[in-house]
């Protein structure tokens, strides 16, 4: 029998998120998450009615933050040329790297979960805005590599690197500099977004 410990809802969401990112949603089980949290499965189900509800609780703060970042991108009319957008995007990645990993890498297979549907719609909105603002395929790819590459590096560093990115200030500065360099001189039209 498991000894029930005083695990907060926030701690349970963090453990579940790590589990979903490491194992994948399909391979994750409430039993394994409960065991890792030092809880019984019924204790987890007391707080979250299903594995889907636990995933939604784990990723929704990041989806809310993504919405703010994308709203800033689409509102400026300058898109990638806006330094504030790059900084906000990097801060999103640093604060929510596992959530971003889950909804980017598993988003299509989890499209029936409302929180993931919302993340997918936001990513589509960003893609539409990029198409509206950046006229050439070459430059859209450069934009995608800059943002997608930054997201990948953070996830890869957390999962596969023997040297994690411990100095967040240095990592943040390096990401902002790299993305800004990749996006330098990117031709941006003033097309309005919907």
UniProtKB/TrEMBL annotation:
Cleavable signal peptide: none
GO molecular function, one term: transcription cis-regulatory region binding
DNA-binding region: 29-48
Keywords, comma-separated and alphabetical: DNA-binding, Transcription, Transcription regulation
Entry-linked SUPFAM superfamilies: Homeodomain-like
Domain HTH tetR-type: 6-66
Stored PROSITE patterns: HTH_TETR_2
Pfam families: TetR_N (PF00440)
Domain of life: Bacteria
InterPro entries assigned to the protein according to its UniProt record, in alphabetical order: Homeodomain-like_sf, HTH-type_TetR-like_transc_reg, HTH_TetR
PANTHER family: HTH-TYPE TRANSCRIPTIONAL REGULATOR BETI, HTH-TYPE TRANSCRIPTIONAL REGULATOR RUTR
Descriptive protein name: TetR/AcrR family transcriptional regulator
Organism: Naasia lichenicola
């Amino acid at each position: 029998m498991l000894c029930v410990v005083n695990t907060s809802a926030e701690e349970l969401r963090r453990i579940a998120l790590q589990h979903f990112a490491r194992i994948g949603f399909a391979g994750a089980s409430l039993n394994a998450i409960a065991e890792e949290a030092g809880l019984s499965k019924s204790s987890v189900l007391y707080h979250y009615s299903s594995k889907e509800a636990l995933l939604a609780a784990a990723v929704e703060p990041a989806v809310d933050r993504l919405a703010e970042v994308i709203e800033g991108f689409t509102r400026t009319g300058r898109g990638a040329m806006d330094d504030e957008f790059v900084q906000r995007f990097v801060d999103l990645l640093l604060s929510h790297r596992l959530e971003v990993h889950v909804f980017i890498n598993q988003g299509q297979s989890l499209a029936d979960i409302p929180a993931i549907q919302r993340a997918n719609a936001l990513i589509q909105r960003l893609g539409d805005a990029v198409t509206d603002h950046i006229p050439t395929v070459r430059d859209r790819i450069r934009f995608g590599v800059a943002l997608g590459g930054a997201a990948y590096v953070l996830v890869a560093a957390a999962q596969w690197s023997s040297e994690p990115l411990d100095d967040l200030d240095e990592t943040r500065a390096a990401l902002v500099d790299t993305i800004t360099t990749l996006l330098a001189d990117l031709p941006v039209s003033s097309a309005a977004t919907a």
